[in-house]
Amino acid sequence: MDKETRQNKVLSGAYKKSNNFFESDVMLHHHLGKILSDEAKNAIEQRLSWMGNVAANGMDFHSLKADKMPPTLVKRDQWGEDIDHIEFHPSYWLLVEYAVRSGMFAVKWHPEFREKLSDQLNKMSFGISYLYAMAETGIYCPLCMTDGVAVLIDRYCKDEDKERLLPSIYASAIEDLKTGAMYLTEKAGGSDVGANLVTATHYRDDLYLLNGEKWFCSNANGEIAFVLARTNPEITGTKGLSIFLVEKTLPDGSANPMNIVRLKDKLGVKSMASAEIILTNTVGKLVGEEFKGFKVMTEMINLSRVYNSVAAQAASRRALSEAYQFLRGRETFGKNAMQHPLVRVKLEELGALNVANFYLTWRAVEALDNEHDENEQQLLRLLTPMVKRWSADRGVYITRESMELMGGIGYIEDQVMPKLMRDIMVLPIWEGAGNIMILDMLRAAAKSNGLTVMLKEIIVNAADSDYAETLGLEVQKLKATAEEIMRFDQDVMQASSKPFFDRLTTVYQMSLMVKNLDGTSENWMLPALDYFKKNVLTKNEELVNTNVLSQEEIDLLLAWKV
Question: Where is the Acyl-CoA oxidase/dehydrogenase middle domain positioned along the sequence (predicted)?
């Protein structure tokens, strides 16, 4: 091959791609090794390796197919009967089968795991599903809904319903699987759930007939849904809402009446079905106490927000790894792209943001497994909206910048970057947009001990480290600012809360990195901490950058092995 032919290529021979995301993601591999017991690691090690292999090799093809061939609604059969059937491309069902085979729900809900490893169920499940989400974030929403309905069934439903429904969630075969859904949003309400109008009229026993329209029903084909409705329309706001278990099929085998008006034509996550659904005498079973529906639904929403965070972290991690692999194999202006200082400066920023988001996200997952602890409960009240907002916001940025690092080829639909970009754009919106999360953090700071617990944890995490003084001073400033903000009226309080929580999130992230610092993690942790200290805490505005990371240092920071 002559020189001219060799040069007419996008990538050089140095390009390598991951063949197993679990083996390549040094940071994930290391962290799971630290936070899981030996018994838990033994239980899921093969599952992690299998999922990492499938996500790196088989899933992209089917993910792109399911994205390009989204579900369609078949309103009627050949006899003119309404059937409201949603049809999917075969790749959709293969992707669902991958989720079932991975055991992401089995390790959380099968009685064997719940009995032996009750304090590690979320860590094990999210360890597997994190790898899944690196390849497919659309179907990750139905998987999230399925786990969410399992939580509500387990905590609030009668024993007969638990025994009947939970095995279909941790099913080992796709034909036995029942997926979940949450029918929450209505036209008049949106994020203001208290404005919901759907009514529930008592039918018999604990059954009610639901009537009205749900505006945004994710996983519209789910067999099990939890639906908010009003048993007394005169009781307004969230305090008038009750929650109902609605199954797609009634006990006699007939369809529960639900009129699917249309499927949503979304910007991203096109592989799964979101719909507008009119409920007309739809049978629902009252779950929990009447008028306590919003409180029950909040538990599902909070879990969904952690899923949202894991999806944001996984998708942006995938985008960054794709850009990194590309740049290592790309020759520009006579040298490898990684040798250009501006490329390394950008990778330093994205790598630091990725590391910080990783430990914030996994702190939330760990707190879910420790909810029996009062301090962890209080922390979660603040941490859940914090991580949901921050991971999504920064995840979108990391993904967009990673696409730009690949140039025009990153914008072409031949590969995963455009799909990642479109899919991740929903995550700042789903389960409460950014402003809603800020208001939720503000309520948590005012009505719980979450802020006190978090500030104390920052001090403990930083103790006996090189960052003890720096983060200690930050905590003092945050305490003083919080006290000042709380003295103002609601308008000033809300307007001031965004910069406060931005700062709190960054300081907390830094403390988590310090806490998890060891002889291995220092490879990516120290440059990330240095970045935040220079560019966030001290707001270094020097125009001359004399400390550009070398290619070897960037390799360590990104912690991605190919």
Answer: 181-281
CB 423 within 8 A of CB 137: yes
* Paired tokens of 547: 């400390």
The predicted model scores a pTM of 0.96
Paired tokens of 101: 């085979």
Distance from C-alpha of 22 to C-alpha of 34, rounded to nearest angstrom:
15
DSSP result, 135-161: T-STTHHHHHHHHHHHHHHHHHS-HHH
Given this model, what pLDDT does residue 547 score?
83
Flag whether 506 is in a domain. Answer: no
Tell whether 20 and 168 lie within a shared domain.
yes
CATH code of the domain in which 252 resides: 2.40.110.20
Cα→Cα distances 185→80, 204, 214, Å: 30, 26, 6
Which residues have CB under 8 Å from 43's CB, separation 6+? 107, 113, 117, 124
What tokens does 132 get?
A: 């899944």
Say how far apart CA 90 and CA 257 lie, in whole Å. 26
- According to the model, what pLDDT value does residue 544 have? 60
3-state class (DSSP) for residue 371:
coil
Give just the sign of the alpha carbon dihedral 386, 392, 393, 394: positive
pLDDT at 1: 45
Distance separating alpha carbons of residues 191 and 543, to the nearest angstrom: 43
Q: Give the domain range for residue 90.
A: 14-178
Number of H helices, E strands in the chain: 21, 11
Asked if 67 and 167 sit in the same domain, the reply is yes
Q: Classify residue 429: in a domain, yes or no.
A: no
Helix (H, G, I), strand (E, B) or coil at 389: helix
The tokens of 135 are what?
């390849």
Does 154 fall in a domain?
A: yes
Looking at residue 55, what is its pLDDT?
98
Answer for the pair 174, 143: CB distance below 8 angstroms, yes or no.
no
The predicted pLDDT at position 454 comes to 98
Q: Are residues 33 and 128 in the same domain?
A: yes
Instruction: Supply the pLDDT for residue 516.
Output: 97
**pLDDT below 50 — which residues of the chain?**
1
